[in-house]
């Protein structure tokens, strides 16, 4: 039995990781912000400590822990959130890594993202050796994850034991916020998706992402990246899977990306500037212009990353959203 501290435990990946650690017999301590929703942790035998990634008490919270899983990150595609993204994803990562070092934590698993890696050309799937220039990464979220990962790499280069995992697009239960992919599933279930943009993503069951974190702690090499991914699918293929699983019709109208680009520009840049809450992020639409395919061979080979049936994960996501009354 080991003691782990998990940041981001109230979120999608964190909630699944906490459950896996508990199932494996480990003691779990979670760092939660004062006003965070604890719905994803209800009934779990975890020790809660209150604070954030910049709290001075972090070394005290980490004392005696065998591993830190730093899953927490701020996610936003709104351009107005640039400073908040940098504070949480870059400075927050730097601070908690320093705290883990001061506390003598033997190993940290840092949750980066394939967003930090970038994309290949022409829909090519890329692995951990690829790196798009940071100025080519679309939006401040991706840039902040790149710079946060640089903090983890620098810590590893200075002798701290830090393993980096880069999840792709997780699917499954406990997506309460929800994530952008969860939003796609919800809009599909609600009949609010009459059309789609031609894009592509790598999908992975969220339980496999949790196992990837556990195996990174047990088997990973410090300073190495491990892409946690599974299936590369076009958005059309993903929607067809949803249709087959739910019996609901898939949208049959593919729209050119110029249409949502124009809508998002007006929504965020014009109406947003006048105080209206925008409904469509410009950077999100710009990302959809890229095919985001990845190769997870290293994690499968070196960590033993599971490759669970994606259809089962989609069913679990659909069932969970319905049970929560969200769809």
Automatic annotation (TrEMBL):
Q: Do you know which CDD domains this protein is assigned to?
A: AR_FR_like_1_SDR_e (cd05228)
Occurrences of domain NAD-dependent epimerase/dehydratase (ranges): 4-229
The record's Gene Ontology cellular component field reads: cytoplasm
Q: Name one GO molecular function term.
A: dihydroflavanol 4-reductase activity
The residues forming a coiled coil are none
Origin superkingdom? Bacteria
Q: What is its EC number?
A: 1.1.1.219
Alphabetical UniProt keywords:
Oxidoreductase
Q: Which InterPro entries does the UniProt entry name for this protein?
A: Epimerase_deHydtase, Hopanoid-assoc_sugar_epimerase, NAD(P)-bd_dom_sf, NAD(P)-dependent_oxidoreduct
Q: What is this protein called?
A: Hopanoid-associated sugar epimerase
Lineage of origin: Bacteria, Bacillati, Cyanobacteriota, Cyanophyceae, Gloeomargaritales
